Amino acid sequence: MKALITHHHHDHVDALGVMAKGVQSLEILGHPNSLKRIASLIKEHNLVERPICVNTNEETISIGSVQLSVMLVLGHTDGHVALYDHRSRTLIAGDHIVGWGSSTHHALHVLLVDLSLTF
Question: Quick count: other Cβ atoms within 10 Å of Cβ 68?
Answer without folding.
Answer: 19
